[in-house]
Amino acid sequence: MIRRDKPVTTNQAPSLCAWRRQLVSRRRFLIQAAGGSVALLFAPRRAPGAANPDPWPTLDAVLQHLLPSEPDSPGALEIRALDYLRFVTGDPWVDAQEREFILQGSRWLDDLSQQHHAKAASSLDDAQMEQLLREIVRTGAGENWVSTLLTYLFEALLSAPAYGGNPQGVGWRWLQYVPGFPLPGSGTRYSELPL
């Protein structure tokens, strides 16, 4: 698992610190720009004052569509990708704007699903979900959202089980990968260690 936006607490060279600040700045700009583009694309169709739907069923459906279960390979369901994504979005090390981008993207997809099919995205069949995802990736923001979810799918497949995904190393076994030891457990996950 990659730590994101960790506060700099060492005496690093000023140029390295400036580079990190600039990198985080560019990343935030891109996420904001992507979020704004998707908001412009989908926001006008939402009725004023409409309640935001629960993002988790939609995210679960998208993750399972992006990495379906197969007889000889684990899918999003088997690697518990949704549990991992819940861990990520609750992780204080993850940029708050990225967290909101992930959750808001599911709401935008639900809005689009309602417009095209008059039902929630989590209720779509495979062909309908594929059509909607292909439509949103035509925009830069939509492509960024799907790419972000794919990144977290791969992390769920490859991360230590202590972070919510890859239960009992199912992804590692499938890839015939032997992880380094010791593995993190309760109290030794990076987010639980003192700075």
Task: Quickly describe the structure.
By secondary structure, the chain is mainly alpha-helical. The protein is 56% helix and 0% strand.
Number of helices in the DSSP assignment: 7
Tell me, briefly, the overall form: globular
Low-confidence runs: 1-13, 36-50
Strand content: under 5%
Count of strand segments: 0
Radius of gyration: 18 Å
Biggest sheet features: none
Instruction: List the domain count as a whole number.
Output: 1
- Multimeric state: single chain
Helicity, as a percent range: 55-70%
Which class of secondary structure composition applies to the elements?
mainly alpha
In N-to-C order, the SSE pattern is HHHHHHH
Mean pLDDT: 79
Amino-to-carboxy terminus distance: 17 Å
